[in-house]
Design goal:
12% of the residues lie in helices and 35% in strands. It has 398 residues and is mainly beta. The strands form five sheets. A seven-stranded mixed beta sheet has the order 3-2-1-7-6-5-4, with no helix packed on it. The longest helix has 19 residues, at 3-21. The chain starts with a helix and ends with a strand.
Length: 398
């Protein structure tokens, strides 16, 4: 066994030993503090650890970065490749290039004037008619807030439409939570902007969406109501001359995960696990808890790691802890962000970014080659400096 592997194996064993003797803070305290300081954020698993365990996690990551060998657990076998990245075997619909050669892309959306169609649900209070935006939202009540445009031809006329996230608030006491939807806007002759379609489940979070091949794809996450979302699934809609109808997106839910190649980097047992209800799995005496689909997941689950914008990468939070205890009370074993790559039907493990168990994972964002992970102190719920990693084309480096 090489020296880097010996070091990493020793660190992993020491961290497991520490976890057995450290008493975590009361779970009720953790949950209360987390909810008070982290509104509308993802909590991927409430696990506690001593600061020495956190140092060991960081040390394991450093060893990983200095060695080309696979994670600890023995010498590599012919079936385990030192390069974890698995290229897709079947292409999925791709996002279009960022540059859009059409006047609609030059719209000053925060201050645009848009003629908005009436919402198809009469119970929904959203403004309609000529709506003037100021700083991304309309004035008066009800009010609409628009942001994050994506472009693509949805009607088949050869010109792109704009798709924007929309939130409607009925009055000053309405928080706007649970009102999210997508709004499709076209630019007519003379430069008039007209919104003609509300798309997707109302009340969802829409951290990512794109247009390809005349179809609108949305990685939508439930907020107050779960309409049957499954982790890794993508919604898709096609314009049919008067309405947007759902179609098959080609992106299947995450049903199975192979952790054998990355387990050593967070201390979780290496296993192939089948996801059950609430995106959890139990195997070899451990519970594997993946990012919950019924929580408000306002994070990018599909980072564009290869620069093609094809939606084939999936990034989810994962936490593991010994089974036989309640998740809130279980001592930590490890946590991190799991990077998977899809061929449309199944997912393969590409990488894993360990996250200090002393912290609670908040939002994470990916821009350029930089992954930024928002973290909160587990004991106090206070925000700490973010964890930043960089994608080198094969895996993430700190």
């Amino acid at each position: 066994m090489t020296e880097p592997r010996q070091i990493e194996t020793a660190l992993r064993e020491l961290r497991v030993a520490v976890a057995r003797v450290v008493t975590p803070p009361p779970p009720e305290t953790i949950r209360a503090r987390a909810r008070r300081h982290i509104p509308r954020q993802v909590i991927t698993g409430l696990v506690a650890a001593a600061s020495v365990a956190a140092i060991l996690v960081g040390a394991v990551a450093v060893v990983r970065d200095t060695a080309s060998a696979p994670p600890p657990g023995g010498e590599p076998t012919p079936s385990v490749s030192p390069t974890l990245l698995v290229r897709p075997t079947r292409p999925l619909p791709s996002r279009p290039p960022a540059t859009v050669n059409d006047p609609i892309a030059g719209t000053d959306w925060p201050n645009a004037t848009i003629t908005v169609s009436r919402h198809p649900d009469p119970a929904v209070r959203c403004p309609s008619g000529r709506v003037q935006l100021r700083g991304g939202e309309s004035t008066g009540w009800p009010r609409v807030t628009l942001d994050l445009p994506a472009y693509g031809d949805l009607t088949g006329d050869g010109r792109p439409e704009a798709v924007l996230r929309a939130h409607c608030t009925a009055d000053v006491e309405d928080s706007g939570d649970g009102t999210g939807q997508l709004l499709v806007v076209t630019r007519e002759s003379g430069g008039t902007l007209r919104a003609f379609g509300w798309v997707g489940p109302r009340g969802a979070l829409y951290p990512e969406f794109w247009v390809a091949g005349g179809v609108l794809y949305a990685d939508a996450h439930p907020w107050h109501t779960n309409w049957g979302y499954e982790l890794g699934a993508v919604l898709a809609y096609r314009w049919q001359g008067g309405t947007f109808a759902p179609v098959d997106s080609g992106h299947r839910p995450l049903a199975e995960v192979d952790l054998s190649t990355v387990a050593g980097w967070i201390g979780c047992p290496g296993a192939r696990v089948q996801l059950g209800p609430e995106s959890t799995a139990v195997r070899d005496g451990f519970v594997f808890d993946f990012t919950q689909p019924i929580q408000p997941i306002d994070v990018t689950l599909r980072p564009d790691l290869d620069g093609t914008g094809n939606g084939q990468y999936l990034m989810v939070g994962v936490t593991c802890y010994p089974s036989g205890t309640r998740p809130d009370n279980a001592p930590p074993t490890g946590q991190g962000l799991l990077v998977l790559v899809s061929n449309g039907d199944t997912y393969r493990t590409a990488d894993l970014v360990p996250v200090d168990p002393e912290h609670i994972i908040g939002r994470w964002t990916f821009a350029g080659a930089e992954l930024t992970i928002e973290r909160y102190e587990r004991s106090s719920g206070e925000l700490v400096p973010p964890d930043v990693w960089y994608w080198n084309g094969t895996n993430f480096q700190p």
